[in-house]
């Protein structure tokens, strides 16, 4: 998948995007979030029901995700988002008054999925609460074992 943001072209392999959705779904489903949100991605449910996940399951989930993107039913890039690249290759992600610095390449897509999920959540989540949640998300993501 390719997308343009701030006149710069970005790309991500579609199955990597699906895996990022799995990670964000797990973040909310397993209650790693600071606040309690009922954020779930329905297209992921079939893979969660499996005892053992194989690569073909990821590819099948990816096909479903691709169809949802083509239909415009899924978009992980919030309107009004700005991404600037630091000299060190990391990103500064800005949305309205919120600013998140030094977001790494590996953190960027799940970060955007989480941010967009909170922005579209009903009832509305305040920007202050979103900021707290996004900082919590980055902290949890960065503390995950790298082994």
Secondary-structure element string: EEHHHEEEHH
Overall body shape:
globular
Radius of gyration: 15 Å
Quote the beta fraction: 15-25%
Biggest sheet: strand arrangement: 3-4-5
Number of strands: 5
Number of helices in the DSSP assignment: 5
Mean pLDDT: 91
Q: SS-based structural class?
A: alpha+beta
User: Helicity, in percent?
Assistant: 40-55%
The major pleated sheet works out as: 3 strands, antiparallel
End-to-end distance, in Å? 28 Å
Low-confidence stretches: none
Which features would summarize this protein structure in a list?
single chain, about 150 residues, alpha+beta, 3-stranded antiparallel β-sheet, two-stranded antiparallel ribbon, 5 helices, about 45% helix
Compact description:
This protein has 147 residues and is of the alpha+beta class. 46% of the residues lie in helices and 16% in strands.
Write up what this structure looks like.
With 147 residues, this protein is an alpha+beta fold. It contains 5 helices and 5 strands; from the N terminus they run E-E-H-H-H-E-E-E-H-H. It has helices at 14-29, 45-48, 55-70, 105-119, 127-143; strands at 2-5, 8-11, 81-85, 91-95, 98-103. The strands form 2 sheets. The chain has a 3-stranded antiparallel beta sheet with strand order 3-4-5. A two-stranded antiparallel ribbon has the order 1-2. Strand 1 and strand 2 (8-11) form a beta hairpin. Helix 1 crosses helix 3, helix 1 (14-29) packs across helix 4 and helix 4 packs antiparallel against helix 5. It is globular, with a radius of gyration of 15 Å. The two termini are 28 Å apart. The model has no long low-confidence stretch (mean pLDDT 91).
